[in-house]
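chain below, 406 aa
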Amino acid sequence: MAVGLHDFPHIPEIKGIKIGVAEAGIKKANKKDVVIFELCEGSSVAGVFTQNAFCAAPVRLCQAHLGLAESRYLLINTGNANAGTGKSGVEAALKTCAALATQTGVSVESILPFSTGVIGEPLPVDKICSAIPTALANLSADNWYSAGLGIMTTDTLPKGSIRSFDFGGQTFTVAGISKGAGMIRPNMATMLGYICSDIAISVELLEGILKDVVNKSFNRITIDSDTSTNDSCIAIATGKAGNAIISSLDEPLAQAFVVAFTEVMQELAHAIVRDGEGATKFVTVEVVGALVEADATKTAFEIAHSPLVKTALFASDPNWGRILAVVGRAGVDNLNVDGVQLHINGVEIARDGGRSPDYREEQGKVAMAPQEIHIVVDLGMGEASDVVWTTDFSHEYVTINADYRT
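prediction:
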């Protein structure tokens, strides 16, 4: 079940972007599983990708193409990850890029490929190539919802976000879609994410903004602590808003863009957590009072990854000792456990490293019952902090992943 996931928003035309979808029958019949983004000439394109050493063939090819030519098309398929497929996987991805390049009159290097789905199986090249003409014929400026459906795997709902802002008498828009529900602990990306804007911005500045904002959004979520082989996040700025190209964060327009861009990215990241496989709780883990941010980050992730904590969250069981145990093994140098505080949904559970004298078990049960849980751990050491978003672990998570290929 999706936890508090809002309906897919209406996303109007982002000038310079068209999207087409098709059904190739890669894994299932009657499912949109091929998506094409057409980008106008002159678009700035930046990407961040998984750091998994077994990264998929399309990831390697996409990274190579980004540095070789102006990007004009994104080619996305679901149902098959084309990962763990060796040199033949790269050749297969290249064949799909060549097919799209031939039909659109651009260079092969202008095509950026993306795949998601089952790992270790050969990419069905013929099915994808056969679907390309249909996807091209379907190109439209208002196909965002269909694209959101088309990139889903175990997701239960499509995920989209949009923000518009006014600056200097102009209106600028930032919109995006993402997919992901399992195998989520990104490392410089998300499962798949595509964020587009009509703003004019240099590639160099867009790259820097994307990397920074990913660390505040997609790099702060975890479902099951598994980093995918296919994680990719792409930012596109078409320049069709007509502003002078911004190239420095010191420019006020750049700062306004970062605010909207961050809101879109964080909403998409939260949507992945809310739609986590089998999730019944949306959990914010906030660690404050650290000497350095790295200590807060690793402590928050350790809590979010703990199966014992996550199963207690599912059961609405205020077994707060599990959280303190994780804090103790998180590897924070010179941690004074007598200074640690713990709050869950505003209820003080632990003070000075032990049970709060005011705490009662009934309070803990009430605090753990809602779908939205906010855990705050104060290390009592300094001023640094960080936040991670995660889910509980339910019976359904095991069922989904046990039956994934069958």
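The chain has two domains: 17-274, 282-402. The chain is about 30% helix and 25% strand.
thats it, cya
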